[in-house]
Design brief:
Shape: extended
Mean pLDDT: 86
Structural class: alpha/beta
Radius of gyration: 22 Å
Distance between the termini: 75 Å
Helix content: 25-40%
Number of helices: 2
Number of strands: 8
Low-confidence stretches: none
């Protein structure tokens, strides 16, 4: 009986330590959603851009992707995302889907423009660049090489 009590207590300690580690990791990384105003952008393809992906400006997380849907009239992907309230974006901002590296995850990168008119909550970024399909790019490169 005493042996089972010790094992149970050790299991509880291990679970508590794991829970504390997860809580520490969550609060000390940029994994949580950024609250702010919502914008939209339309892309021809958003391969690998999940809901919850980062929205970055100059490499710094300023928002989060909160939704995706297909525009059934144009067949474009409509991406909804939030941007921190302290970040004001010009109306000629460019939104691009890019990756952290060849095998890294995708995120939404914002390149602010020079306009004096700022985007308001609910506005749409019209200048966009969709995700690049690396496999198609590699196959084109391979088929154009000389033997």
């Amino acid at each position: 009986m005493r042996h089972n009590l010790v094992e149970t207590l050790m299991g509880a300690v291990v679970l508590a330590a794991a829970g504390a580690f997860i809580a520490f990791a969550y609060t000390n990384t940029d994994m949580r959603a950024v609250n702010g105003y919502e914008l939209t952008a339309r892309f021809d393809r958003i391969d690998g851009l999940p809901i919850g992906a980062d929205v970055r400006l100059s490499g710094i997380k300023v928002g989060t992707v909160v939704g995706q849907e297909l525009d059934r009239d144009t067949y474009y992907a409509v991406v909804r995302f939030t941007v921190d309230n302290s970040v004001r974006l010009p109306e000629d901002t460019i939104a691009k889907i890019t990756s952290e590296g060849l095998l890294g995850s995708n995120y939404l990168a914002l390149d602010p423009g020079v306009s004096d008119v700022m985007l308001e909550p609910g506005d749409e970024i019209v200048d966009t660049q969709g995700a690049i399909d690396f496999l198609t790019l590699l196959s084109k490169f391979g088929s154009n090489s000389k033997d």
